[in-house]
Amino acid sequence: MIAIYPGSFDPITLGHLDIIERGCRLFDQLIVVVMRNPTKNPLFPVNQRVEQIRHATRHWSNVEVDSFDGLTVTYAKKRGAKMLLRGLRVLSDFEKELQMAHTNKTLADDIETFFLATSSEYSFLSSSLVKEIAKFSGPIDHLVPQAVALDIRQCYAKTPPIASPLIVPETLPILESPPVLWPTEKPSGSVE
């Protein structure tokens, strides 16, 4: 059976690779499809994400990597796939994924969605989290494949994050505060 594992994979994480590894044991062929998502501003172009995934999955003989711009079910029909593989990290993923599975079923009732819970060590991990950490030069080597970590570092080295400057309006009055008195001090001019 052919299964499709669609996503934006920007970047691919060890959590994604966990799903791919387990999926390639469940299906005869697993096609990882980098989908273009018009609502996201990607860090890497689609062709670079495809190459990153190919490199990371090169040791699994039944994994293919491709890209597509359109509906996932359209691509699945084109490839003769009857199963969509989706990873679930947390309950909120399930709500979104279930809605998508029901929608896909209305578009192609012969295609099923197979949900696979992410291994617990990756349940917190998302591509957005990786980008946020990397943006501020945090360590990401334990979250993504090494080659991808290098690509991410190079990307942010070209466009470092812009820190917001502290803006103090000139119109704010400067207030004088009364002097701070320590318990052993007495205010000047006070009578005992």
Number of helices: 6
- In the predicted model, the low-confidence regions spanning at least 5 consecutive residues are 164-169
How much strand? 15-25%
- The termini sit apart by 94 Å
Description:
- The chain has 192 residues and is of the alpha/beta class.
- It has a domain at 2-120: 3-Layer(aba) Sandwich (Rossmann fold), CATH 3.40.50.
- Helix content is 38%, strand content 16%.
- It is built from six helices and five strands, in the order βαβαβαβαβαα.
- The protein has helices at residues 14-26, 46-57, 72-79, 91-107, 127-135, 146-158; strands spanning 2-7, 29-35, 63-68, 83-88, 112-117.
- Strands 3-2-1-4-5 form a five-stranded parallel sheet, sandwiched between helices.
- Helix 2 links the parallel strand 2 (29-35) and strand 3 (63-68).
- The radius of gyration is 26 Å and the shape is globular.
- The protein starts with a strand and ends in a 34-residue tail after the last helix.
- Residues 164-169 have low confidence and may be disordered.
Brief write-up:
The protein has helices at residues 14-26, 46-57, 72-79, 91-107, 127-135, 146-158, and strands at 2-7, 29-35, 63-68, 83-88, 112-117. By secondary structure, the protein is α/β, with parallel strands linked by helices.
